[in-house]
Amino acid sequence: MRQRSFFKRKIFVQQSNHQVHLNKSLKAFDLTMLGVGAVVGGGIFILPGEVASKTAGPGIMISFIIAGLACCLAALCYSEFASKLPVAGSAYTYSYHVFGEGIAWILGWSLLLEYGLAVAAIASGWSSYVKSLLTGFHIEFPKVISSSFNPSNGTYFDLLAFLIVIIIGILLSIGIRESTRINNIMVLIKMAVVILFIVVGVFYVKPDNWTPFLPFGFNGVITGASLVFFAYIGFDAVSTASEEVINPQKNMPIGIISSLAICTFLYILLSAVLTGMVSYKQLVGISAPVAFALQYVNLNWVAGFLSLGAIVGMTTVILVMSYGGTRLIFAMGRDGLLPKTFAKVNEKNTPVKNTLIFAFIMGIIAGLIPLNDLAALINIGTLFAFAMVSLGIFFLRNNKELPTAGFKTPFYPVIPAISFILCVYLMINLPGLTWLSFIIWFVIGIIIYLLYGRRHSVLQNEK
After folding, report:
1. Strand partners of residue 131
2. What are phi and psi of 44, to 5 degrees?
3. What is the tens place of the pLDDT at every residue in 108-122?
4. How many CA atoms lie within 13 A of 394 on its CB side?
5. What domains appear along the chain, each with residue ranges and CATH number?
6. Once rounded to an integer, what is the mean pLDDT over residues 375-394?
7. Phi and psi dihedrals of 155, rounded to 5?
C-alpha cells in the first residue's frame, strides 16, 4: 500500500516540464502595475475615515507605517521565494516545496479566503460607489436588486456587484496579456486621482486637526494597523504570476517591492492630508471620507474626479485578486488537490473554465453578502499566509534541492524573523469573531483535504 504523508514535499522542476503550464509574457512594469492595481483600491478610499474616527485618530499615519512595514518585510520574503520558485500558486506553491503538502493545502485554503472574499468585498464597495454616481444622474436601480440580501430592508441581491465580477472574469478568460494592458491604463488613472487629492488637499491642511495626535493611545494605533492591513492586501497576488513572468529571478522582486513601496508612500501621504483637512471626530460614520474632505472645503469638482478614481481603483483590485485566485486554483488543480478541471487551459494556455467558475461563485457571494461582513475575514487569512512565508525562508535556505540563484532576503535571519513576529502580533490584535470564523474555515479545509485532496494528490500517488 502506498504510504501517504502530510509533510511530503515537492521537488522543484522547471515549469516547462509540466504537461500543463502558462505562457511567459509579463515584465517588471506589468508586475508593478498589477501590484498597485491590487493594493490601491477600496482600502484607500474607504478605510482611513473609519479607522481614524474610531481607533487611531491622526495616528492612523503610524498605523499605515506599521502595516506597511509588516508588508514590506513579508514582501522581501515573497521576493526570494518568487525568484527561486517561478511557478504559479504563490505561498501555496512555496509551502509545498519547503513544508510539505498538508501545510501547502492549509496555506492555499487560507489564500482562497483572501482572494475570493477580497473580490466579493471590493465588488460590494464598487457597487456602492457606482450607485452613488448614477444617483447624481437620477438613475435608480430597483430596490430588490440594489443591495445585498436583507429582506427587512426589501433588498435581496446586489446585481451591480455580481455583474462587475462576471465582466472581470470574462476579461481574464480572454488572456492575461490583454488584461494587463487594460489594468495598466486603469492603474495610471487611479494613481493620478490619488495624487490630485494629495496635491490639492495639502493647501487645506490645518495642523490643529492633528491634535491630539494619539487620542486613543498607542494601543489604538496598533489596532488601527491590524485594520488598515486590509488596504495593503493584494501585493502577494503578484507572486501568483511567477509562471507567466519573463526572467522571474530579476522581475519578480522588482514588481513586488516597487509596487508595495509606491502604495505605502501614497497611503501615508493621503492619511496625513485627510486628517489634516478634517478633524478625525468629523469622520465618524462617513463611508467615503476622501470625497467628504473635499466637499468639506468646497472642492466638489475634485470630489467628482475622486469618485471616478475610486470606481476605477476598485475595478483593478477585482481584476488582480480574481487573477490571483484563478492562478491559485489552477496550481491546486494541477497538483490534484482540487478537481483536475480547474487546471485545464485553452489554446492560449489560459485557464478559462477555472476563471469563469471562480467569477460566478464570487459574483454570487458579492451579490448576497455586504462588504462589512466580508472584510474582517480577509485580514487573518492574509496575515497567516505572510507569517508562513516569512517562516518558510528558514527552510528555503536549508533546502539543497532548490535553486540557489536569485534574489535573497537581506539581513537574514533578522528580517524573516521580525516579519513572522509582526504578522503574528497583528493577527493577535484581530477581533475574536474573526478568529472563530477563521478556525471554522480552517476545519472545513482540513476535512476537504482528508476526504478528497490527499486521495487525489499527484504527489501522493507517484510511483
Report:
1. none
2. -75, -25
3. 998 888 888 888 888
4. 12
5. 16-455 (1.20.1740.10)
6. 83
7. -115, 140
